[in-house]
Amino acid sequence: MADASFLYIAFFLTIGSFVLGFLASWNLRKVWDEWKERAEYAAVVMHPEMYQDGEPVDPSDLLYLHFGDDDDMIDDEDD
Asked: Do residues 56 and 50 touch, judged by C-beta distance below 8 A?
């Protein structure tokens, strides 16, 4: 049979690990919920310049700057 001191130590280490895991997961859940709430809010909120008369601007109406080649870069030549 196992020694009584070994059982005593094993019991408290097991209970301690469960308590520590519970507290860590409780705190991480709060952090996760706050992060998720902020991410959902950021996905909904758009910049004011992306609205026209209170309605979101159609992405096809936006102007985009595309460089076809690496040589097409705009250089500042004010040396």
From this structure: yes
